[in-house]
């Protein structure tokens, strides 16, 4: 039971070109899932396939345990919030919200009650008789959400719903969406290219790259235990430093022999370390600062290692360091991630 | 107009002069002359004209032939415009679905635009010929069932069909481009809201297509007032009897065969007023259903 | 599009195929009959969908025994010149209307757009009078002057008859000024920056506006070319000699020449195809560019 979503070896090809490669995953009942990835990774296609707006080439999609891949959108129990809101311009806000109920043949009285209720949830009360063209971006967004929740759907799908709002509004809507999800409890799938949206809203994040799952885990794991160099460099701003090193069983060395960190690994490997985990002010490493950005709370330093590779260091003490100064720092062993240089996959546990 | 940034003067005058001279000479002058001749009569033995007040109008308006051809023109406009737009709408809705057939259909369906009414009239005359054409076998079984040469209703129908044929391309282009400006996500949203394809057409696509539908109706009404001339001239010559004599054809025969300049001019004035009235009525209607995107 | 609706796609395909059949069947029938000889046609006693071998023969007959080749040339000249006049005049005027500050612009725009409401064919009777003597308005002025100055002699009378000339046939066709509307929409959609680097008006017109307007210019030119080609009533009355008549008029004269015997249907069908070939090919090849250039979606 429950409104689970199961993707079972789902593939999609457009004109013979595969964009989703046999993808499998399961979403729990009531979970808030974010599908994250760079543009063109197939995340919107994924959402359309769950919604039924796009046919799948092979595989199965199950909602609440029932196969739906051959069902029409209306028979899947999903509602969707679109990127450009997709409000019907010739209908009032009330008609927009109530259209699904009207199509479903819900009696007028009940329709009005439910429209009012949905409008109350998104705080839209005063605008019910206006046309969408008379609303601001944030208000349109609320109408779009009200339209989605008015049917009490099993599954709520969001297609980059916040990308058309300005930064301030986006932050507010993020909090509201999070509260809304807690209140309604529908299984929600949220597509975005913005990692902050994904990390703050979702219980679990599915990171897609070129039609494949790179990692499907909690935001915490995504950040602290990236499964591949792709995840490591996609999540976090600034992204994780990735340095090609060689391990001799006791230390990881740069090609010129400089010891970066103590570690038991043997052989060539990609070392990853987040800029903010590098400890400055003490240590064995000494390098020149090429460029410095003061961000108030901390400083971002571009530093050149021996052998020419550059790394970023985020340091809370940055203000004391000028450009072209030499700074001392070290990589704490417990903060080091290792990735297979060939496959990019995580190598340490 | 928001882009103005040059000031008027000689250059401005020189730029607008050609088109003004052209339309004054070959449009406004003829229109004015039509009004002039509707109040004047040509003197019988050469040269000059004589003011006759409303006599010309009285003569035309008392002529039963005028009223019947005006009525036929109205009927023809209604039938040809309605069928032409309805068929084009169906085809545009189908072509908008982006299936494989629609690419070729988009091309083929506008070919009639390139074929003159008079040329296709000749082809249709043959196709509808009671003895040689498509329905000839039918006539052998039921003699006299179909004969546009004798039966006025048959003849009228052939001209309507031919006019619909020639009118489809333009309506189709306008309606299809109108459909394509409707954002895809609106259709998807309606699908998510549970609307079936037919319901989406009715509730979303048609309402959003009203500007284009009005445009096609306005243009069809203007065109169907004059376009059928080429068809009538090659298919029926206004007959049998007067059954396909639309006003445009009557004006031509009165003016160029009976040399009744004043009569033809008066009828031209009345037809102009009729067309303008039809167009204005449509603009009034359109104002009522406007919405903002 | 929503893909889970195969049945509807099938219905749509059926609608399109029926529509194309309706459009194409007269043309196909004309083409098949045009391949038959007169004897074959009479023997079949009506429409026979069996193609014959005489297509080339019929076309050769059209080309050698009728005036149609010459008349096709007339059509090319009339259609090209009316389309060229339409596009050039409208382009210059719209440039002035959109980019110049003038209190006349509104009026001029209204005057040009009003021509769309009343097609040429509606006013052929008096247009004929005007073209028979284009100097008519000048004569009025002269007479007025003569009358005012009380000169006893008769006023001079100017005559400039354009009937049966290419100019006389093409110019009235060129009056309909829909292009002004299309160009205006296009100009207004251009980014302002395109015109802001301080170039003089003519420089701007030639160096910036003209190259930018290629798409709508080509589209409208072809559209008006085809329009000029297919016009019938006006050329019918204004071209009085067979040498000056455009092809469509020539074809219809062929059709009405022999009323009593079974008409030369195969020849007529060949003729109908002969006079329609060029514009149909033009429309078929340029379809995409025309639709894009006319920008009909934005009313």
UniProtKB/TrEMBL annotation, chain A:
Q: How does it sit in the membrane?
A: Peripheral membrane protein
List the InterPro entries.
AAA+_ATPase, ABC_transporter-like_ATP-bd, ABC_transporter-like_CS, ABC_transpr_MalK/UgpC-like, Mo/tungstate-bd_C_term_dom, NA-bd_OB-fold, P-loop_NTPase, Transp-assoc_OB_typ2
Record keywords = ATP-binding, Cell inner membrane, Cell membrane, Membrane, Nucleotide-binding, Translocase, Transport
- Localization in the cell: Cell inner membrane
Q: Which PROSITE patterns match?
A: ABC_TRANSPORTER_1, ABC_TRANSPORTER_2
Which one of the record's GO molecular function terms can you name?
ATP binding
Domain (ABC transporter) spans 5-235
Q: Where are the transmembrane segments?
A: none
Could you tell me which Gene3D superfamilies the record lists for this protein?
2.40.50.100, Nucleic acid-binding proteins, P-loop containing nucleotide triphosphate hydrolases
Q: Does the keyword Nucleotide-binding apply?
A: yes
Task: Give the SUPFAM superfamilies listed for this entry.
Answer: MOP-like, P-loop containing nucleoside triphosphate hydrolases
| Similarity comment: family membership | Belongs to the ABC transporter superfamily.
Q: Which named protein is this?
A: ABC transporter ATP-binding protein
Upper classification of the source organism reads: Bacteria, Pseudomonadati, Pseudomonadota, Alphaproteobacteria, Hyphomicrobiales
From TrEMBL, chain B:
Membrane spanning residue stretches: 12-37, 70-93, 114-135, 155-179, 206-226, 264-283
Predominant cellular place of this UniProt entry's protein: membrane
Keyword Transmembrane on this protein?
A: yes
- Topology relative to the membrane, per the entry? Multi-pass membrane protein
Q: Where is the signal peptide?
A: none
As for subcellular location, the record says: Cell inner membrane; Cell membrane
SUPFAM superfamilies linked to this entry: MetI-like (SSF161098)
**InterPro entries on file:** MetI-like (IPR000515), MetI-like_sf (IPR035906), UgpAE/MalFG_permease (IPR050809)
Q: What does the subunit comment say? A: The complex is composed of two ATP-binding proteins (UgpC), two transmembrane proteins (UgpA and UgpE) and a solute-binding protein (UgpB).
Keywords, A to Z, come to: Cell inner membrane, Cell membrane, Membrane, Transmembrane, Transmembrane helix, Transport
Any idea what job this protein has?
Part of the ABC transporter complex UgpBAEC involved in sn-glycerol-3-phosphate (G3P) import. Probably responsible for the translocation of the substrate across the membrane.
Q: Family per UniProt?
A: Belongs to the binding-protein-dependent transport system permease family.
Protein name as annotated: sn-glycerol-3-phosphate transport system permease protein UgpA
Keyword Amino-acid biosynthesis tagged: no
User: Which segments constitute the ABC transmembrane type-1 domain?
Assistant: 70-282
From TrEMBL, chain C:
Record membrane topology: Multi-pass membrane protein
Q: Which residues cross the membrane?
A: 12-34, 76-100, 107-131, 165-183, 204-226, 267-286
What positions does the domain ABC transmembrane type-1 occupy? 72-286
Q: Keywords in UniProt for this one?
A: Cell inner membrane, Cell membrane, Membrane, Transmembrane, Transmembrane helix, Transport
Q: Where in the cell is it found?
A: Cell inner membrane; Cell membrane
Q: What is its main location?
A: membrane
Quaternary state and interactors = The complex is composed of two ATP-binding proteins (UgpC), two transmembrane proteins (UgpA and UgpE) and a solute-binding protein (UgpB).
Query: Could you tell me which PANTHER family the record lists for this protein?
Result: ABC TRANSPORTER PERMEASE PROTEIN MG189-RELATED-RELATED, SN-GLYCEROL-3-PHOSPHATE TRANSPORT SYSTEM PERMEASE PROTEIN UGPE
Q: Tell me the function of this protein.
A: Part of the ABC transporter complex UgpBAEC involved in sn-glycerol-3-phosphate (G3P) import. Probably responsible for the translocation of the substrate across the membrane.
> Per the similarity annotation, which family is this?
Belongs to the binding-protein-dependent transport system permease family.
UniProt name for this protein: sn-glycerol-3-phosphate transport system permease protein UgpE
């Amino acid at each position: 039971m429950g409104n689970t979503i199961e993707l079972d070896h789902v593939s999609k090809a457009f004109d013979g070109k595969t964009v989703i490669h046999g993808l499998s995953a399961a979403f729990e009942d009531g979970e808030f899932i974010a599908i994250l990835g760079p543009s063109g990774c197939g995340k919107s296609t994924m959402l359309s396939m769950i919604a039924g707006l796009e046919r799948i080439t092979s595989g199965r999609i199950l909602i609440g345990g029932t196969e739906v891949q051959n069902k029409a959108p209306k028979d899947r129990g999903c509602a969707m919030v679109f990127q450009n809101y997709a409000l019907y311009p010739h209908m009032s806000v009330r008609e927009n919200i109530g259209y699904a109920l009207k199509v479903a043949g819900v009696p007028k009285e009940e329709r009005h009650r439910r429209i009012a209720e949905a409008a109350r949830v998104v705080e839209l009360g005063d605008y019910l008789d206006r046309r969408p063209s008379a609303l601001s971006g944030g208000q349109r967004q609320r109408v779009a959400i009200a339209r989605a929740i008015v049917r009490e759907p099993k599954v709520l799908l969001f297609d980059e719903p916040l990308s058309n709002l300005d930064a301030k509004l986006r932050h507010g809507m993020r909090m509201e969406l999070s509260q809304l999800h807690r209140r309604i409890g529908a299984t929600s799938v949220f597509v975005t290219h913005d990692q902050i949206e994904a990390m703050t809203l979702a219980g679990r994040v599915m990171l897609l790259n070129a039609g494949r799952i790179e990692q499907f885990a909690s935001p915490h794991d995504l950040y602290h235990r990236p499964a591949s160099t792709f995840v490591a460099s996609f999540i976090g701003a600034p992204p994780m430093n990735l340095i090609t090193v060689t391990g001799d069983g006791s230390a990881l060395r740069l090609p010129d022999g400089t010891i970066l960190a103590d570690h038991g690994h043997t052989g060539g490997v990609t070392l990853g370390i987040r800029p903010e985990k590098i400890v400055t002010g003490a240590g064995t490493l000494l390098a020149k600062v090429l460029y410095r950005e003061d961000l108030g709370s901390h400083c971002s330093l571009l530093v050149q290692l021996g052998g020419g590779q550059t790394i970023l260091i985020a340091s809370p003490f940055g203000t004391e360091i000028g450009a072209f100064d030499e700074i001392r720092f070290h990589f704490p062993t417990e903060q080091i991630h290792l990735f297979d240089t060939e496959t990019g996959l995580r190598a340490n546990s | 107009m928001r882009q103005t940034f040059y000031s008027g003067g000689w250059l401005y005058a020189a730029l607008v002069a050609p088109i003004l001279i052209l339309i004054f000479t070959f449009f406004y002058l003829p229109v004015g002359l039509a009004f002039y001749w509707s109040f004047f009569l040509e003197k019988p033995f050469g040269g000059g004209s004589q003011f006759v007040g409303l006599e010309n109008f009285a003569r035309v308006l008392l002529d039963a032939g005028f009223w019947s051809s005006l009525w036929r023109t109205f009927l023809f406009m209604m039938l040809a415009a309605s069928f032409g737009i309805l068929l084009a709408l169906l085809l545009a809705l189908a072509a908008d679905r982006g299936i494989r057939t629609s690419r070729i259909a988009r091309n083929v369906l506008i070919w009639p635009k390139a074929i003159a009414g008079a040329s296709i009239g000749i082809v249709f005359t043959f196709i509808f010929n009671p003895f040689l054409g498509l329905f000839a076998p039918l006539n052998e079984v039921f003699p006299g069932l179909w004969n546009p040469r004798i039966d006025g209703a048959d003849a009228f129908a052939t001209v309507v069909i031919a006019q619909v044929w020639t009118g489809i391309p333009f309506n189709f282009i306008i309606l299809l481009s109108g459909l394509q400006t409707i954002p895809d996500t609106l259709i998807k949203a309606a699908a998510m809201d549970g609307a079936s394809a037919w319901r989406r057409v009715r509730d979303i696509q048609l309402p959003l297509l009203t500007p284009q539908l009005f445009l096609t109706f306005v243009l069809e009404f203007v065109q169907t007032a004059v376009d059928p001339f080429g068809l009538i001239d090659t298919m029926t010559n206004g007959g049998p009897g007067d059954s396909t004599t639309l006003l445009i054809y009557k004006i031509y025969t009165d003016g160029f065969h009976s040399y009744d300049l004043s009569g033809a001019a008066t009828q031209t004035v009345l037809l102009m007023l009729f067309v303008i009235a039809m167009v204005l009525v449509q603009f009034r209607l359109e104002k009522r259903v406007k919405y903002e995107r | 599009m929503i893909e889970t609706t195969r049945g509807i796609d099938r219905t749509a395909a059926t609608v399109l195929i029926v529509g194309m059949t309706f459009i194409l069947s007269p043309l196909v029938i004309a083409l098949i009959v045009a391949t038959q000889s007169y004897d074959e046609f009479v023997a079949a006693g009506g429409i026979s969908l069996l193609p014959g071998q005489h297509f080339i023969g019929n076309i050769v007959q059209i080309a050698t025994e009728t005036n149609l080749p010459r008349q096709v040339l007339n059509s090319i000249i009339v259609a090209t010149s009316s389309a060229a006049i339409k596009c050039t005049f409208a382009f210059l005027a719209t440039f002035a209307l959109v980019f110049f500050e003038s209190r006349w612009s509104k009026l001029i725009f209204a005057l040009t757009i009003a021509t769309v409401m009343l097609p040429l064919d509606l006013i052929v009777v008096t247009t004929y009078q005007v073209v028979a003597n284009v100097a008519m308005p000048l004569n009025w002025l002269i007479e007025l002057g003569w009358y005012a100055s009380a000169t006893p002699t008769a006023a001079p009378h100017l005559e400039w008859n354009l009937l049966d000339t290419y100019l006389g046939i093409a110019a009235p066709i060129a009056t309909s000024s829909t292009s002004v509307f299309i160009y205006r929409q296009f100009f207004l959609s251009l980014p302002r920056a395109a015109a802001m680097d301080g170039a003089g008006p003519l420089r701007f017109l030639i160096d910036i506006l003209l190259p930018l307007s290629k798409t709508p210019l080509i589209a409208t030119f072809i559209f008006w070319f085809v329009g000029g080609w297919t016009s019938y009533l006006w050329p019918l009355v204004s071209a009085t000699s067979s040498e000056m008549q455009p092809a469509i008029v020539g074809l219809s004269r062929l059709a009405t020449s022999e009323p009593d015997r079974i008409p030369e249907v195969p020849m007529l069908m060949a003729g109908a195809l002969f006079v329609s070939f060029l514009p149909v090919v033009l429309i078929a090849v340029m379809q995409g560019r025309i639709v894009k250039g006319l920008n009909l979606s934005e009313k």
